[in-house]
Design a protein that fits this description.
2 copies of one chain form a homodimer. With 332 residues, chain A is an alpha/beta fold. Chain A contains 14 helices and 7 strands. Chain A has 2 domains: 38 residues, no CATH class; 233 residues, Rossmann fold (3-Layer(aba) Sandwich). Chains A and B meet through helix 3, helix 7, helix 8, helix 12 and helix 13 of A and helix 3, helix 7, helix 8, helix 12 and helix 13 of B.
């Protein structure tokens, strides 16, 4: 059994044990999440995403150090690797790269990999983040590798989302940027000592302006519709573009300042609370779904479902027709 | 209204209209999926994935051409771009790069982007693929950009999964490969005219061998557990590694030959049928979930749910405790 009081008192060994339970979604882990729920909801969650090769990990280390040393806040890093769905492994570097902060109980690092099931990673990450939140960390940095649905899920979890770019990653990567730009609250051009950094920053600015322009004209499913317009008549946030050289600790102060500014913006406009409530709403809805299926399964003999499946396999019934007949009671 | 008979008779304009309905998950689209279900289940679904910059799109064009011209089979391409979650845009190149096959009714190309909601892309893609299957295409090539959860979802949809690599994409990309390798039935090293192609192929082989070795020792959640061991005592499939230069149509015959060989392997071992049934089973399960929630909503006043949510927002009740009380009827 994990000692929850020890976790909230700052016992790091117990924290690590609890996170393993939560990541594996064991009954003990689920119970702990339940009991810790009342203590969570205070940490500022920051998502950091971007294509491979942009130096995200170094940047995250620098940000953590700055938040801890200059801002005197506690900080946890959750490094998520959705590209490793089946092995359950995690990027080794994440565990060793923060040596300079080792021994400081105000800094904590956790690596995790995807569970291979749809939505599994997102919910495991949400659980891990909730525990770190309840354990009292002021900032939680959630770092992801890759560019896809997982980034969108994490953008939903974080209050502030950083998208990291770097100069000269080639055309195909440019295509990816276009989509990911839309979830950015802060844009970072890392490795800005490389040639082309100014061009990358300029291209990002042009893309952003285009995005806003498109929004004004077509009112499509653009990020402004999703984020800024959550609360009507809210002043819009224009994502700043910051050039950094993480390996030389260059530009880090500025990025942290923008994170703090964005947090303030969210709190002042009521968006912080709204995002938290939206997240809780989906969690409750998801649990409702699972609970209803469980209750249904307890009252229905498994053969009924299996017989129906056989008809679907034979393509005699479509999946929809099968479920309709099942729920209308016209099938037994 | 879309004319379904016209779609199955080969009317491409009606097919395109229907796909739009299905992609947008309109009632007409859902109804059409339902009616076309009995006609689907014959096409061989091939997933093609890999990191940006590997030349996947050129490779997919070459494969389509070979399947159409040399194998005399009809072929559809579904190009999925999960990195563009909010705009609904699609990569322009996909629509224009197949000019040489234009006018051939035995070839069809469709681009689609993510819907921005969890699982939205996977289910929209599944619908589009089912329509193309019912429309009679022999092969459906599903191409994805990026590296993440979406690739895993698509691996679940496809019978044969190709992972495309190319020489010299840098260390960070190597990390991604490790995870994605595990979903590969066929590995392609494209751009093999670049220096380092032999090294890449060798590294992949070493990685694969290591994977099998690990599996033998630890029996973890490795791909062999997921794919080859689906049916016990099935001979294992060893993913071949093929070097190609798609821009010069080099190595394409070999890749197509391996796709055909893998299809034969799946059919002979019963894995083809098993994968189809697993997919249908999850679809039915998903519909059951949705149906149960809908039924519950019809019998419960919305205020009950909203009042409960407020308690969760105030952190007086955890999400789990809220749902427990709701389903036990102890809360009103």
């Amino acid at each position: 059994m994990v000692d929850l009081d020890a976790v909230t008192r700052g016992n790091r060994l117990e924290l690590a044990r609890l996170l393993t339970e939560v990541e594996n979604q064991t009954p003990a882990g689920e119970q702990a999440l339940d009991r810790l729920f009342a203590r969570a909801g205070k940490a500022h969650l920051v998502g950091i995403t971007g294509a491979p090769g942009t130096g995200k990990s170094s940047l995250v280390s620098c940000l953590a150090k700055n938040i801890r040393v200059a801002q005197k806040q506690t900080v946890a890093i959750v490094a998520v690797d959705p590209s490793s769905p089946f092995t359950g492994g995690a990027i080794l570097g994440d565990r060793v790269r923060m040596r300079e902060l080792a021994g400081d109980p105000g800094v904590f690092i956790r690596s995790m990999a995807s569970r291979g099931e749809l939505g599994g990673l997102a919910s495991a990450t949400a659980g891990v983040v909730q525990v770190l939140d309840a354990a009292g960390f002021d900032f939680i940095l959630i770092e992801t590798v890759g560019a896809g649905q997982s980034e969108v899920d994490i953008a939903c979890l974080a209050y502030t989302t950083l998208v990291v770019e770097s100069p000269g990653l080639g055309d195909d990567i440019q295509a990816i940027k276009a989509g990911i730009l839309e979830i950015a609250d802060i844009l970072v051009v890392n490795k800005s000592d490389l040639p082309g950094a100014e061009n990358t920053a300029r291209a990002l600015r042009a893309n952003l302006d285009l995005g806003y322009h498109l929004h004004m004209n077509h009112n499509g499913a653009h990020r402004m519709t999703i984020k800024e317009n959550e609360v009507r008549n809210t002043p819009a946030w224009t994502p700043p573009i910051i050039q950094t050289i993480a390996t030389q600790h260059n530009g880090i102060d500025e990025v942290v300042a923008e994170i703090l500014k964005h947090r303030e913006y969210l709190i002042d406009t009521g968006l912080w609370q709204k995002r938290e409530q939206d997240r809780l709403r989906s969690e409750v809805y998801h649990l409702l779904q699972t609970g209803l299926v469980k209750r249904w399964q307890q009252s229905t003999p498994p053969q009924v479902f299996e017989r129906l499946l056989q008809k679907v396999f034979a393509r005699e019934l479509s999946p929809r027709a099968a479920i309709d007949s099942l729920l209308n009671g016209s099938y037994n």
